[in-house]
Amino acid sequence: MITGTTAGDTAELDSGSRQLTRVLVLFSLSGGLDPRGPSLGSLVERFDFGRFALHLKSSAAVLPVPVLVEDVAPGELRLPHGDRGLALDTAEFAVLATPRGDITLVLDCEFAGPTPPDALAAWLADTCFDRDLITLGGRPLLDVLGERLAPPEPLAFGHNVHQLVFPGGELREELLGVDAARQSAVLNEIVYRGRMATAEPPHLRNHGATLSAHGRGVSVHAGWAEHVENGLTLVAIGIISALAVLQRTRLAAFETMRANEQAAASSPYEIRSLISQLSAGVNELQLDLAFGVEAYVDSLLIPDMVMEAFQSSLRDAFGIRDSLDNSARMVERLTSVISARSAALDAELSERDDRRDRTVSVLVAIATLIALPPTLLLAFFGVNATTVNTHRSIFDAHYLPAYLLAWVPFLVLAAIGYVRMIRTGRRSGSLLTPAAPISAQRPPSGS
User: Fold this and answer.
1) Mean pLDDT of 183-190
2) Taking the domains of the chain in order of start, what are their residue ranges?
3) CB-based burial of residue 421 (10 Å sphere; 0-12 exposed, 13-18 middle, 19+ buried)?
4) Per-residue DSSP letters for 193-262?
5) What is the average pLDDT across 96-103?
6) Which residue did the predictor score with more confidence, 387 or 444?
7) What is the C-alpha to C-alpha distance for residues 232 and 311, in angstroms, rounded to an integer?
8) Mind listing the pLDDT tens digit for each residue in 116-137?
9) Of 175, 191, 252, 320, most Cβ neighbours within 10 A?
10) pTM (2 decimals)?
């Protein structure tokens, strides 16, 4: 295994000749699969990664795993606008699931015969912009996949697509030829359909042997061996999956913010339940950012110059680093707001308990004082006085003034205490007021 090689050595070791043009289309899919579900083994066991295999075996725990891999008869795969004059030689699709349950669909095609740049660009445009209309055996592609995977919710195409083109035959010779102007024209035709220039990562061009260039949605890699093609594909899968997770995380962060602002809690118990739900949601966002994004946007998986160069350039094209930093700050703000609300709840409950304790203490003290009239009343009935008629019952109306004098003050005190305790329990206005919007939170100094 060789790592950290120079551009020339890498091209010499990893370059190869290809007769048929190969195109891999990567689709992010919404929804998710249970990561504990059955898989078809590891990626290394299913696909050829050559000298990168040892790196990938050591990182198998964080890599996506294939859950469905099938060959497709070329005649069964149909695009909405036809084949654009290109004849499929072989086709295969693979569904990959990350440890967090995110799904990527990989469509691997090889074309028989010539692949003119304009026809190839049209085919790429159809598989990107009209991907919902792709059919397999006369049925929508995702309906077929849904039946075979049985996901918990229906599959749908996400917003992210990346297409890797590995030219063969005449197209390869054209791209690796000496005519630089023709090279540029062909690359722009395939990558952007001639509308703008392409990006060429450093260390990925060796004149006459290898060439790599890309935009946001299409990359072209000519002259590489198959194991390098698979490695570049895995890098692109990681970037596409990370971008899909970032977009989902951003939307989930906004939903959590709205739930915090619009919560209609009416008791401390409901507020505690709300805080618990918000905290659980924020924890999931943090896990998504860590294990669904950060794990796939650095060079640790395949520490090789070719892979690092492509990953870095593609990552910059998508702006993943800035998006990751911004999303992480949003989650931090949410965490701060939830922590502040929890602290406010604890402080308010403590203050309420203190008020209740003071009320009870005052009531006990006053009750002790007004216990004197009942004591005197009992003493009055217990003595042998002329005012106590032995022939009258203790409940006779004759003694009503004595009873009123003894018990009315105590009953009034009990009523006042009850009202005070009820008001103390309801004095939680600050708890029921939604937290200030996230935009109103002042960031800490230095952020």
Assistant:
1) 86
2) 7-243, 246-347, 351-432
3) middle
4) TTSSPPB--TT--BTTTBEEEE-SSEEEEESB-HHHHHHHHHHHHHHHHHHHHHHHHHHHHHHHHHHHHH
5) 88
6) 387
7) 8
8) 999 999 999 999 999 999 999 9
9) 191
10) 0.72
